[in-house]
Amino acid sequence: MLNPSLNAYRPDLADKRLQGQVEAERFVEAYIMRVKVPVAPLLSTPDGAGMLDSQALLGDVVKVFEQTDAGWCWVQLDKDGYVGYMPTNMLGPFSGEISEGVVAGDPTHRVSAVRTFLYPGPDLKFPATTFLSLGAGLMLGGEVETRGTHYRQVLNLPNPTDKPTWVVAQHLRQASDYAADYVSVAESLIGTPYLWGGKSSLGIDCSGLLQLACEMANISMLRDASMQEQQAGVALDISRGLPELVRGDLLFWPGHVGIMTDSETLLHANGYHMAVAAESLTVALDRIAANEFGALRTIRRL
C-alpha cells in the first residue's frame, strides 16, 4: 500500500500519476503554485483544526490537486513529496508578475541567517513588516547601502501595500551556495522553540530540524523521523552496544531523531526542553528510555 503521506490519494480524488495503483472516483493532474508567505502550514485536515504535519517556506513549490470554496488547497510539497492541506491565500503563481514590482519564480537566494526581518525600505530603522526563516527562498532586485549596511530588494514577498520589501544582504546566500556542514546548520538553531510539525526557525520539531539542516547542505532528506530512519545514509550495527560515534551520526528512537555533534553530545528538538537543545547523550538515553520513546532503535551515518 502506498504511503498516503507521500502519495496524493483519497477515496474521492487522486493524483493522475497514481492511476492504476490506487482506487479513486477521480484522477486529476496537479497544477503548480508557490508559497507566497514566510511560513505556510501543511495540515492533516482542511479546517484549521487538523494536526500540523509540516510547514513550507517562502518560494517553495507545491503541486495543487484541489482548491475548495472554503479556502483550502489539497497539495503535495515538491521538495519532499509530503501531502496535506494548505490555506489557499498562502499560495501564489508559480511564475510571472503578481503586481507592480512583485514577481514569482525560482528563488535566486536563500536566507542563511537563523532568521531575518523584512522592511518597507532599505533601512533598519523602518518598522519590520515580517520575518523570514532560515531556508526561505527569495527573488532579489536592486541593492542599496544605508549607513554601511547593504540591503536587497525582495521581489517575491510584497509588503501590505503590495510594494517590494527589503532585507539585509548579509543574511542571504545564493541558492546554489550550500553549507559545508549540516550539523553546523542544526547547531545554529539551538534555542529555537519546539513545535510539533514545525520546520522554521520560529518553531521546529526533531525531524524538521534534520530536514532543514540537510536542505541547507544540499542533502536530500524525507520529512518524518520514521522515513528518515529508513532513508538516511547507512545503518550502523548496534546489536552489541553503542559503536564509536562521530559528528553527524543520526540516532533514532520510535518517532524521534537526534544528531550527534561529537561522540558524546546529542542535538535534538524535543518536548522535554521544548526547544532545540544539546545535551549529554548518556543523560538523554536514560531519560528517553524511561519517559519518552523507549530504547534507541537505529543509528545511521550519512
Could you give a quick summary of the protein structure above?
The chain is mainly β and 302 residues long. The protein has helices at 182-188, 206-216, 225-231, 281-291, and strands at 14-15, 27-28, 31-35, 39-43, 52-57, 61-67, 72-77, 83-87, 91-93, 96-99, 102-104, 109-111, 115-119, 130-133, 137-138, 140-146, 149-158, 164-168, 172-174, 199-200, 203-204, 234-235, 250-253, 256-260, 265-270, 275-280, 298-301.
Notes on the protein architecture:
By secondary structure, the chain is mostly beta strands. It has 3 domains: 9-103, SH3 type barrels (Roll); 109-174; 182-301, Alpha-Beta Complex (endopeptidase fold (from Nostoc punctiforme)). It is 12% helix and 39% strand. The protein has 4 helices and 27 strands. The protein has helices at 182-188, 206-216, 225-231, 281-291, and strands at 14-15, 27-28, 31-35, 39-43, 52-57, 61-67, 72-77, 83-87, 91-93, 96-99, 102-104, 109-111, 115-119, 130-133, 137-138, 140-146, 149-158, 164-168, 172-174, 199-200, 203-204, 234-235, 250-253, 256-260, 265-270, 275-280, 298-301. The strands form 8 sheets. It has a 6-stranded antiparallel sheet. The chain has a 5-stranded antiparallel sheet with strand order 8-7-6-3-9, with no helix packed on it. Helix 1 (182-188) crosses helix 2. The longest helix has 11 residues, at 206-216.
